[in-house]
Amino acid sequence: MYEDMRYFGAAEACWRLLGFDLFERQPPVKRLALHLDGQEVVHFTTGQELAAGTADPPSSQLKAWLTYCVEAAEDLTLPANANWLNMTYVQFPGYFNYTNGVWRPYAVRPGRYRTIGRLDAVSLRGDEELFYLRLLLCHITCGEIRQLASTGFAGPPLRIQLLRGACSTFKDACIERGLAGSDREWELTLAEARVTHMPHQVRELFLWILAFNSPTDPHRLFDDVWESMINEHHSAHGAMRSHAQRLGIDIEVLQRAIVLIEMRAALEATGMSADEAAARLPPLDAQHAAWLQQIHDFESSPRVLQVKL
């Protein structure tokens, strides 16, 4: 009923008859390693998993690049490009070749097209530190790495050579360099909303900021605005005062915990996973969660038992 055959149109048939190239990729693209400290790719054979896991972390393109920037271990027979100190990690493959765990200048000048380095895409929601590390590597140069390493910081290799001064995270380093914006815009927006909007409107505004934008420090934004999300006339919050007195704790502790739980549920309702929603908000203290469970159990019990308690 069917014939197994291929069809060539006139344009493709002519292209093949003239012998033009059918498959080509120019310029060549090199995938570069991207990882945090202790997250290098480890290869092992079956049965050697434990030995591979306990051995020293293997070398990688990224770690070798940092080593080259600091030590400049150049082969005198292969002089490097005079401008190598101004190159970033992504630009390095165009002038250097990575072989046997070491970056070396090309022995023969590449042809018409130089190799282009590419870093895997990273989701800000998936891994915040890795996202900002990727952003930093696209801008920081070998010369800057060399200068930072001379300050003598102590710590894991990447943090020694990529962080400076008071920066404790790659996010802080990106903000300091102007590669990532601060949350000033969101702070002003929420400050105005606290004065002019009702609690449920502040809650909705904050939800939109978290769900559809990328504030650099959402935990601090929550701490600044959570009290404006409380509606004392709402039954859930209105009953908290008597429960706080019964448990002998501060009512603000319970109210903040309730707001956290409600905001986490609202984020999950937008399609965000539970882990992503939890990462966008401050963690819920285990003791606070236990108190809320006690309150839930108390309100679920018959009224006679409540009076007796």
Feature tags:
309 residues, mainly alpha, 2 domains, two-stranded parallel ribbon, two-stranded antiparallel sheet, 16 helices, 4 strands, 49% helix, elongated, disordered C terminus
Description:
The chain has 2 domains: 31-43 and 54-176, no CATH class; 184-308, no CATH class. The strands form 2 sheets. It has a two-stranded parallel sheet with strand order 1-4. The protein has a two-stranded antiparallel ribbon with strand order 2-3. It is built from 16 helices and 4 strands. β2 (96-99) and β3 (102-105) form a beta hairpin. It is 49% helix and 5% strand. The model is unreliable at 303-309 (pLDDT under 50). It has 309 residues and is mainly alpha-helical. The longest helix is centred in the last third of the chain and has 19 residues, at 251-269.
Which secondary structure elements does this structure contain, and how are they paired or packed?
Layout: H1 10-17, E1 29-31, H2 49-54, H3 61-71, E2 96-99, E3 102-105, E4 116-118, H4 128-137, H5 142-149, H6 157-162, H7 170-176, H8 184-196, H9 199-212, H10 218-225, H11 235-238, H12 240-247, H13 251-269, H14 274-280, H15 286-300, H16 303-308
Parallel strand pairs: 1-4
Antiparallel strand pairs: 2-3
